[in-house]
Known about the structure:
Layout: H1 2-25, E1 29-34, E2 37-42, H2 43-107
Antiparallel strand pairs: 1-2
Amino acid sequence: MEAEMKYKLFTGLVLLIPVLIFVQNNIDEVQVHFLEWQWPVPLSLLVLGALLVGVIIGLLLSYFQGVKKKRRVKKAEQEQLKKQEAAATAAAEAAAAQQAAASVTAVNPSEAPAADEGDRLP
């Protein structure tokens, strides 16, 4: 667990250094116009803000696709379970019918097929 934490810290620092360099090199202000409003914003914050909005939208889309996929998997599992239950019920009914037929033959030996004289053992 400690190695994983060190890896995450190292990765975070490796990603943070270029971001800090980008921010330092792009501190010039630009005018942002939106509808009737306008305000000055450092270029680096504008670019990082756009990146952040894109990441959030991507994460939300990914989350909703995951939820949709889980629903499809759950529905498929339920359908498979219903098929298995139906097959088990059919097999149980067939076994019960076969057992009932065997018990009827045992109860009424007169209905059983007669053995030939040649079939008897001495």
